[in-house]
Amino acid sequence: MGKRRTFFFDGLGVSGGVVLGPAHVLEQLGYEAESRTLEPEEVEAEIERLHNAVSMAREEVQELARTVAERVDPQQAAIFDAHVTLLGDPLLIGRTEERIRRDHHNAEFVLWSVTRDIGGQLQALGDAYFAERTHDLYDVSRRVIKFLSQLRHPQGDTIPAGSIVVANDLGPADTAQLRRDKVAAFVTNAGGPASHTAIMAKALQIPAVVGLDFITHYVRSGDFLIVDGSLGHVILNPTEEQIRFYRERAEEWRRSREGLEEFRTLPAETLDGTRIQMEANIEFGSELDLALSQGAEGIGLFRTEYFFIDRKSLPSESEQEEAYTMVLAAMDGRPVVFRTLDVGGDKIANSIPTPPEANPFLGLRALRLSLAYPELFRCQVRPMLRAARGRELKILLPMVSCLEEVWEARRLIDEAMADVETEGRGLPERVLVGAMIEIPAAALQADVLAAELDFLSIGTNDLVQYTLAVDRVNKLVGHLYQQAHPAVLQLIHRVVRAADARGVPVSVCGEMASDPLLAMVLVGLGVRSLSMSPQLIPPVKKLLRSMNVSALEELAERLLHLSTPTEARAALEEAFREHGAGPLPSAQDAWRYLPEA
User: Fold this and answer.
1) Per-range mean pLDDT, top range of 89-93, 357-361, 466-470
2) Going by fewer Cβ within 10 Å, which terminus of the chain is more open, N or C?
3) Pairing of the two strands 233-236 and 224-228
4) Domain, as residue range, for 102
5) Of 205, 215, 210, 174, which Cα lies nearest the Cα of 478?
6) Domain final residue pick, 230, 258, 286
7) Does 402 participate in catalysis according to the annotation?
């Protein structure tokens, strides 16, 4: 057999780096499971596999119900009674078993087919009650399919070292579980430039390309791939010439990263002496060493939601306290900002009972979810208070949209403080409460919020999404997700001015802070604190040390008055070239064009 044909794929580079190596295709079962024909002798084993998955799903639901009843609300736990009943319903499981015997098809395919049939019948009744039962039906089937997938396609440690993972999609929890010592890069059909998966890829320093549409249809495990996570290129079965070229490019990447070594220990100070605070965004305590080694002066964003994602039950307060204590101890007096639970949208927490939503990005997510389940919020705040006893504690509220939400959150924080005080435990020296500014309404009322809060943190990922009405994980409209859009910059400028007027610190913890070009603009707009994925600190610091704030202020002022995002990006690149950096093909590739030290 001759050499397979070479294919070139052009996607979205979301985490820089160049990798050459073998593919490992993750066989993730979607809800439209593919049909697989069984041999007659395989039928009984397939039915046993179905029963095993149902048992595992029932055990998970029962454990989830117990946890929710104890920690959140017994009434909310009642929703799972219907799920347990469905898992023993002959109409669902019994009919699935019958069709497996009759049609000789795999359990995933048959179960989902039966689910759609029953769901259609319930919807046709036109009754609100039965429509709600349809949601339960689909949730139960998805849960069983998840366990069927695990029984048939174990992952994790089965991934060979040095593999390039190829998948339809990877959620934030999936990406977090990819072991850096085994996974060299990953590429996916789905995903957008500012998705949480992209953010996790950067944090884990795994080169990644997303939005490749149908790459899983072409690639087989063991195929040789080249992945350029900077420019978004993937080559399947490359030629010898392409291999030689990209090996040189990989070495160039490695040398350029090593060239940033000296900037890790230098302060982020402009040529005219303006100091910029450089902090890190992290998800796990294991990232602390990386953050400090890259020159982080604090943790500007500790994402706490990963305690809740990809697990059956809620984390205990002692588990959370242990993690928060470790972070504060490791940072040894440096600032640490703990963001409260931020799930919803593309971050799903199986341990929290949330109803299906037609538009989850505009639904019950982030602070809204915490305020809907007050005990869930308090059981997050109490461990923070205990861990920070005798220290300063900074609590960041995500997705604030109005002042009333801040008042209610502060009331619940006060209740949590009273709980801890009643235990006889010491309290923090002081508790500072801040808000994420990531909704246009919050940006427009920044002056009102700043009067009630101790600090503000601008989350540019969602701020861009909601300002421009662009789904940031949708490739079809990805070209409209323009971080340098004048409207976005005007909102950021408004927030900075409002915070300065009130004497309230303001930082940027979104992805704009980690793009060297956009970091220049943020500093020009008056931002003096930037927080980003740890390994992106040195290149941003290197650029800022070569600039004058006066020049950045002039650039920012010019951008604020442009009409289109295209004009803004062109002006940015022109400023970069004028500074002697040369052309800039990609923000992800910006490290290659930084001025010489």
Assistant:
1) 466-470
2) N
3) antiparallel
4) 40-152
5) 210
6) 258
7) no
